[in-house]
Amino acid sequence: MNMDALVEELKVKLIEQLNLEDIKPEEINPSEPLFGDGLGLDSIDALELIVLLERDYGIKISDPKEGRKVFATLLTMAEYIRANSPAIS
Amino acid sequence: MYILNHCRISKGIISDSDGIVFDSQGNNLAYFLKEFYKFDKIIYPKFYKMDEQCKLAFIASEVLFRNFRRDDYADEELAMIFANSDSTLTTDMSFWDSTFAIASPGLFVYTLPNIMLGEIAIRNKIKGENIFFISREYDPKLLYNQTELVFQNTNTKIAIVGWVNYENDTSYLAKLFLVSKSDEAKNIFSLENLINLNN
Amino acid sequence: MLNQNITISGCNIISSLGFTSKENFRNVLNGVSGLQFHSHDSAQPLALIDKRQFDKSSFENQLPETFSMFEKLCALSIKDALSESSVKINSEDSLIILATTKGNIGMLESDNKRSESIHLWESARKVGEYFRVKNFPLVISNACVSGVMAQVLALRMLNAGQYKNIVVCGADLITDFVLKGFQSFKALSPAACRPYDLNRDGLSLGEGAGSIVFSIGQSEALFDGVRGLSGASSNDANHISGPSRTGDGLANAIFSTLNQADVRPEFISTHGTATPYNDEMESKAINLTGLHEIPANSLKSYYGHTLGGAGVIETITTLLALESSKAIGTLGHVEYGMAEKINLVVQTHDLVFNSFLKIASGFGGCNAAILFSK
Lengths: 89, 199, 374
What we know:
heterotrimer, B: alpha+beta, Peroxisomal Thiolase, Chain A, domain 1, 34% helix, C: alpha/beta, 2 domains, six-stranded mixed sheet, five-stranded mixed sheet, 21% strand, globular
């Protein structure tokens, strides 16, 4: 899967996993911070993103601090998945 | 002590002390709470993250607080005294289901009944007393007694008192009262009114 | 309003450290922790009740076969607390308050569906029936402040003259449900928890029950006549799971508690879960309330976090410490790691104190505090 397709896929999964019902995929800027003001995500969302990575991409993150770096933006998340997922080649 | 407003959500209808606020025309709860959220022009994205019981409590509190002069009171002067029967059983079962794949932290956080109080507190900056009781049925005597004790023992001036129980999309009840220690209103806060009003 | 003569005539702790409050306290004094790895592949240590001893005790006390382990735990704890007191729990003016977060939740693990018996009021009914009470037990479920809050309510109801005796029982069990929930929150330390330590990395779970018999106007009084003075709860209005970053919520509960009494605490039993944010928040609240020079400890590294039981178990332990003039050290603590200083007791040592504050905070942004004094 190429990077653009993965980013688009992640936008949809993010909205579903985190119940961001009022947000449309095209409104998410892949290089803007996910946490803080942008999408208003919080610590529980970060934990849910860890679930998403494990369930859909077979990547386990045990340290929430590592998660904070991975989930900086949608782009860093996509890069991390490409580098670490056995499911994406 | 006076009842400034009350709100009830049951059988697809939202009502307050002036009468019916919203009629779902028979739609199930999950659908109609979202309909009301849009109808009432509420902008609060966290709403979508809540479990159904918290959504029910949240919408009931939004209706309850209409026309309430929130800014007349300090955050610490507002209290919440709630009860229900099921605690969080429906979400408990969903969370337990999730553990067979990957346990969901987003569900686990809703497996405590007082999370409802937390959600309403965050929305309305309520920082006073917050107590959650479990009783088999709506128990007006318990709620009346505990609210009176909160008024007597703390700086509380306003209390949100009531019952929120969600079993499924067709069996649920929210029944809240907005109670003032001293501001006068038509209905006094009494055991009789906890029994007779808001039905 | 408060400050009437509410004394204590009985108490019990059932936990990983024993079956009576004295046995538990002896272990705490000796620096014993109940936290253990229970199988070679377990990811976290847990402080579990000795099940063989528990079954033996249930059998000897002829508890009904129909009772779940949670109901047996509550009944055993209340029974032992009452055994040293003359209080008649089955009188018109006596009440039981049950404080728990999840009660019989373990029942979902064999059959994930609704049943009457899983409800907290049904456990309360059974326990009440066992003691032949006249008043249906009150159930409070306020996350991790349940045990402190139940005691606060007891003080309020006794002071208002609604009852003469109230037994508060706080209890919770470690179930797969609770364990998997805390694991999903990445909240558990891989080792025994280290409250207020620079390298603290999460909490450790424990199970247990604590029961206290409160009475108003009674002549018999344990712990050198210590009285329950006042208490309060508050909400952070900040986040449903994360503690406040400022400590103002807990500070509000402490202020409200102290405003109702004319006594200053000489010791603080903190919540001290050893999660990075909780301990930081508590140290801020203690500073906001000007109590940072008062000796304080956390007991979580002895009992684990016993959830609904914690507030009661830790109150009893601090009452026993007051009685024997000991400041209990914060086991597992090596290096202080908070932005703001508190007077943390690290090693157990002799200390005479006449009053103390018990504080707690939990999910839902709730906080609670209660004050005791000779």
